[in-house]
Specification:
The protein is an alpha+beta fold and about 150 residues long. It has one domain: Aspartate Aminotransferase, domain 1 (Alpha-Beta Complex). Strands 1-2-3-4-5 form a 5-stranded antiparallel beta sheet. The radius of gyration is 15 Å and the shape is globular.
Length: about 150
Amino acid sequence: MLSKVEKIFTKYDELVSSLGLHLREFLLSQLDGCIEMPDLSANMVAYGFGTGYIDMICTIIPSRKGIKLGFYKGSELPDPENLLTGSGKVHRYVEIKSEKDIRSRAIKQLVKEAIKSWKARKLTKGLSADRVRPDSYRGYRGGARLPKAGF
């Protein structure tokens, strides 16, 4: 039986499905202890350290055309390689066209910056520093749903 994540990716051709699964592996390795939140109705997978928007780091958004790696508050992230696109006030995304894109230094840096942004959001909400550690969620791979994102 397929997992919810696999159901989302297997709707697409082999290239999109493969890129989505590789991107998933990459994100799970970079976001130690994150919560993976597949949303079948929105056709995306969100990653974060809690189930609300304030805790979201990024999303994988598959489509017939390819895979997008979306960043919550991406409009605020430093992006020296100018990879982030999108015209929304908050969200930005990177189009993933190959496995090489996934492994790029620029993508790794964007993920690190997204984690820094998450920590800053938590601190401004008055949470203590020890509550902002991603490793406190180590090993949890819940299936909680986020509200639909407006990408």
